[in-house]
Amino acid sequence: MDRDTLKRALENADLTNYEAEAYLTLVDYGRLPAVDVAKKSDIPTSQVYDTLRSLESKGFVETIDHDRLHAEPSDPVDILTHLRERGELFTNAAEELEDRWEQPDLSDHRVGVVKHADTVLEHTRNQIREAEIGIEVALTADQFESLRAELTRAAERGVVVHAAVYYEPDLADRSEDWDLAASGIEIHVVKIPGPFLAVLDRTQTFFAPNSRAKEDYGILINDSILSFINHWYFQTCLWYSWDPLTAGQQTPKIYISLKEFIRDIAPLYADGATVTVTVSGIDTETREARELTGTVTDIYYPNVFVNDSPSLERLSTYSIVWVDTGVDELSVGGWGAVFEDFEAQTITLDAISFENAGQA
Fold first, then answer.
1. Predicted confidence (pLDDT) per residue in 114-124, tens digit
2. What fold, for 254-353?
3. Entry pTM
């Protein structure tokens, strides 16, 4: 059951529109300041305090006064009973609400397990709206269409979006309606079945098995180390080995993987190209966010070969790019960089020029 249907059921169970919206928001996010309830819902700030007080009087939430008003959902025993007495629609809503109540709060736990794969999709949808850096997602065509609006909006605000879509015989026909050229989403087609997987902003991972699994479940991860492991699985098994959906798709000018940047640029650099980049990321000494622009002066990885794009095997341990900013020459590493000067989160390819050939 989707959120709108669940909200409608709550409204039919004697909650107002604002009360149902506030209650679902608190069930989804846990304890929140009143102002954040308004921000994460469509409730006007001027109405949110009265709405929360009304829900408290009905026993659906508890409010806490600190420096500002906070609210959290009460145990849903009473509302579950009330809904189940209203018939089949309310029974379905109660079961969905109970499932959401039992979901782990990822702000307090690194890993949580949920009962249904659909729940993972909804968590992913919500977090895509908050993504700021990059999204890597592997999914079926149906799942892509379900998330396409959120993925497109993420790409429009500058998030790098890579989608590995599992092959279906009618995929080419279905994709004609996706308007990929305008969406900013890069899609590769994976010709073997696999799980639903989403890695967001290097910190969150959402996983659900495919339809061949014997059990329906999902895993929610809020941990950068586990997310890195899933990122590497995505890169090696679901991305590099498979072709773009359409032949016209170009290598993206913004990278979220230093290894992918090196695979594309190393042969050109070896041929004498001047490569200008802008790197956004973290200063490894101060741990502060920084951005640097400059020219690539060297590329290193184990067993360097200058005449070919390096294999994933050669990039699997470590790889470094040096960038001359005009003031300093800084070493740039990928996700989890420790010894380099800079940990890259995104690498924007600004320009490639071959001075001897007189072309750019």
1. 888 888 998 99
2. SH3 type barrels. (2.30.30)
3. 0.64
